Structures are given as C-alpha cells and as structure tokens.
Amino acid sequence: GAPRRDPWAGQVRLARVRRVIAVGAGKGGVGKSTVAVNLALALAAEGIRVGLLDADIYGPSMPILLGITACMARARVTPERHIVPLLAHGLPFVSFGFFLGAGAPVVWRGPMVAKAVRQFATGVAWPELDLLVVDLPPGTGDVPLSLAQALALDGAVVVTQPARVAAVEAEKAAALFRALEVPVLGIVENMTGPFGRGGGRAVADTLEVPFLGEIPFDSAVVSDGDAGTPTVLTRPQSAAALALQTIARRV
Ligand code: ADP
C-alpha cells in the first residue's frame, strides 16, 4: 500500500535553510549523486547560497565526487556539539557518514534511520542557506522513505536513465514522493546517448511532471567524478555541464 506518515515521527524543519530539495532515483548507478553535486555547484555559481547533504547511507559517494579526503572528512564540532559543515568547492557539505562514524549499524531499518536523521538534521550548524540539496539513497524501500519523511522536503528531482526499462523504477520513486506530499519538481534523464534516449521524457509525460532535461553520457564526467573535480567546474562548456546548468535553472 501507499506509505503513510508516521504521526509520531515528526519532521525536521531546518533552521536557517529556506528550501530543501532531494535528488532521488529508482535504483542505484543512474548518476544521482553526480547530478546532485553538479546541480548544487551550478546553482551556487548563480549566486544562490547552496548546501549539500549526503544522505545516501548505502553508498556515500559524495565525498569522492567532491574531492574530500579521509583526513578532511573529520568534521569539526562546535562547543554546543553541532557538526560544522566542511567546505567542498565553496559549498557547505555534510555527509551522514561523518555523523555515523564507526558506530553505524550495518543493517539499517526505517525507524533507526528516522531517529538518526532527526538527531543529525538538528545537529548540524548549517550557515544561512537558500537551498539545501539532499542526495537520498536510491529506491523506494524503508530507508529512503524514512529519510524523505523525516527531512521536510520542499521538492524532489528524480534522476533516471534513457532506457525505458529504467522508467518503472523512476515512476515508483516519484510515486513515493507524491505519497509523502513532496512535490516532484521534475525528471532528469542522465547518460543519454549510448543507452538510448527518451525514457526520462516518457516518465515525465506519464506522471505529468516537468521534464527537466537530458545529460549526455560523457566519459569525462566519470574521470571528473573520480578526481573530485565536478564537471560543471572543470569543463563548464561541455555538453554535459551545459545541460546541468540548464536543469539547475529549472529546479
Ligand atoms: P548513483 O548516485 O545514482 O548511484 P553516481 O552519481 O555514483 O550514481 O554515478 C554512477 C557512475 O556513473 C559514476 O561512475 C559516475 O561518474 C557515472 N556518471 C554519472 N553521470 C554520467 C554521465 N552523464 N556520463 C557518464 N558517466 C556518468
């Protein structure tokens, strides 16, 4: 059945953060984290005060994408015991992983996630932000559901791949947001080209939500990601970066 709000869970409204949007996906490996990082940087380049929260507890790839090494990842704590975000290419950044440390459970369940998220969300000393971009875990299971519920999201972007077989998962992810009354801001098609084209637009049409654009497959996106130097910064004139900048303006 449709997910229901847990009346006892309560949502965390972050002080000092005007708008919180999530980047989600129906399944892993579609480029969700890459899109989240590049969208955030593209928006920051427009003068918007953007922060980044890596809430993908299954595979926190954001520190790598942002070039954060293990020693930098030791986040500072204020005297009030709030985590001070790191600065990654100028953006305040926190990974759920910093907070969890070695004590993190190997197997997460929804209620544990909800509790941890509430502690975490209230335990970060975010600066004044116009927008916080949250990288959610992929899929529609207990964990992404609990995260999406706990964080009081203002909107969600769903990333999918061109092949139409990917559409089913993307539609499920969008349905999850809708069930939580989180507006779906639109669908992004990533890796357009070798895997085909059109799946993202088909999902958007089916769901009657905006199609935000397609990002071409580009091997430089992979090398930029591995090097921690996101494409919108290092190759702002590439087709992939231009697509990301256009999508950012539509979010
Ligand atoms: P997810 O967060 O959905 O699991 P990632 O952002 O970690 O996915 O990306 C998965 C892989 O795909 C990474 O190696 C990344 O560099 C690569 N990738 C993402 N977007 C593109 C693209 N447009 N072209 C080529 N490779 C991409």
Automatic annotation (TrEMBL):
Binding site for ATP: G26, K27, G28, G29, V30, G31, K32, S33
Annotated GO biological process: iron-sulfur cluster assembly
Keywords: ATP-binding, Hydrolase, Iron, Iron-sulfur, Metal-binding, Nucleotide-binding, Plasmid
InterPro entries (UniProt xref): Mrp/NBP35_ATP-bd (IPR019591), NUBPL-like (IPR044304), P-loop_NTPase (IPR027417), YlxH/NBP35 (IPR033756)
One Gene Ontology molecular-function label: ATP-dependent FeS chaperone activity
A Pfam family per the record: ParA
Function comment: Binds and transfers iron-sulfur (Fe-S) clusters to target apoproteins. Can hydrolyze ATP.
PANTHER family per the UniProt record, alphabetical: IRON-SULFUR PROTEIN NUBPL (PTHR42961)
Family indicated by similarity: Belongs to the Mrp/NBP35 ATP-binding proteins family.
Quaternary structure and partners: Homodimer.
Name of the protein in question: Iron-sulfur cluster carrier protein
